[in-house]
Amino acid sequence: MEQSIEKLISDNAEKFEKYYNMLVEWNQKFNLTAITDREGVFVKHFADSLLGERYVPQNATVLDVGTGAGFPGIPLKIVYPEIDFVLVDSLNKRVKFLKDVKEALGLEGLEALHGRAEDLARDKSLRAAFDLCVSRAVANLSVLSEYCVPFVRTNGYFVSYKGKKGLEEISNAQNCMNVLGCKIEKVDDFRLEEDEAERLLIRIKKCKGTPKLYPRKAGTPSKNPL
Ligand code: SAM
User: Is the peptide bond before 72 cis (omega within 30 degrees of 0)?
Assistant: First the structure.
């Protein structure tokens, strides 16, 4: 594991242990994760989520879209307790789990919301309200950008966690970037020592306000990507 990430985890060991135990316990009743062995969760969920730590600005408000069991949002919140996070998922059972984790870990400044990104992005208190939006394993880059970019304030960022297929998705996302008024500013690639798979973090800058039309109604972005 990258040394700095290993340190972030060991500095917050008690919280990560508690989170791991809750994940495995709840997973017996609800489907939260296919990975349940300790090493797997610490590397493929916790360390992987923390790769995005370097993109979190100071005093930011951060949104995680399609957070599932809390990735990458909860590990980022654990290491940045002073930063406000909102986690969104369309499956209510997962949101209930996140609320329980919040209580158990004493995470102030964390809100878990149930809903689809396409609907929540029309809420005045959420639209263009975040300095940073993150998302992992939810949809292809064009679909995901339509979900995420409307939540970001102008000059803020959307960081998409991808595997190596991300490169292909980038080449298909140009129209989407133009329509949404944003641009791919940087693509960083990483490998974690314990898990050789290539990881790409795509940093997208929102350059101007999102046209009112977007996101289109729930279900349309995935059926008919920009
Ligand atoms: N981000 C987590 C991770 O990396 O482990 C979860 C990934 S899981 C494959 C995708 C999650 O996105 C699911 O929990 C699903 O309910 C949620 N999701 C899918 N479409 C969504 C939408 N339109 N709005 C909000 N959540 C959505």
Answer: yes
**Cβ(83)–Cβ(20) under 8 Å?**
no
Q: What is the pLDDT of residues 140-167, one digit of tens each?
A: 999 999 999 999 999 999 999 999 999 9
* Residues within 6 Å of ligand 1 by CB: 65-68, 71, 88-91, 94, 116-118, 136-138, 147
Cα(94) to centroid(ligand 1), Å: 10
Structure tokens at 42: 């610490």
Residue 142: which of 129, 130, 158 has the closest Cα?
158
For ligand 1, pick from 30, 48, 65, 89 the residue to mutate: most ligand atoms within 8 Å of CB: 89
Q: Which two tokens stand for residue 51?
A: 């790769």
Q: How confident is the model at residue 219 (pLDDT cuts 50, 70, 90)?
A: very high
